[in-house]
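Q: Convert this sequence to structure tokens.
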Amino acid sequence: MPFPTVQGESIEVTLQFAMLLRDGVTNSNQLVGDVTVSSGSILGKQKDSTGAFLFLAPDLKPGPQSFVVKSKLDTPYYLAVQIPVTVPMPSPLWPAFPDVTLANRNLPLGDPGQTAAYKTQRQLATLLPTTAYPFPAGSTLIRGAVMHGGLPLAGALVQETPGSDPAYTTGPDGQFVIFLANPPGLPQAVTLTATYPALPAGTATVTVIRGLTVSATINM
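A:
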């Protein structure tokens, strides 16, 4: 007896824009936990568990957009960030951020010698870990807190100095974590600087040991 069949349906969609995020710890496009990317009320569609978030035409209105990237409350592994982008992208062949058409094609995309324009966009699209991030065993970390008047200071910026990595913004508990992707082979002193509007900068120096976590408190 023949079985009834249903004629297949197909839907044609057009990619309007893609946000391509990276994990700042693993330096890969695989993200941990649940992450959302939105522009106003428009929510991007994540491709599997990767950092690719797709927006289909005609969801986004042409013009300047502010894409909000944040982790969901049950997996708060990345610091929230806002990324300004003008849609559509300059090249219809690459409607994505970061814009690889700005990169030097003769160099790997992650090469330090890449163009300044591309590196700026790549840094914005690289998610920084929070203190709750599930760091792999053997990571080299500096964990600590920024204090003012004996109380935790939220909204302070903490950064290794000298250093080129983005600063960590402390939360309500004043805590921070600094991940060292290329730690020194021998114990080495590292200076952290914390800044906050209307307050003098605070510093702390700790000895970093590869594969271990050290703690620091910065008083401002």
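The longest strand covers residues 199-208.
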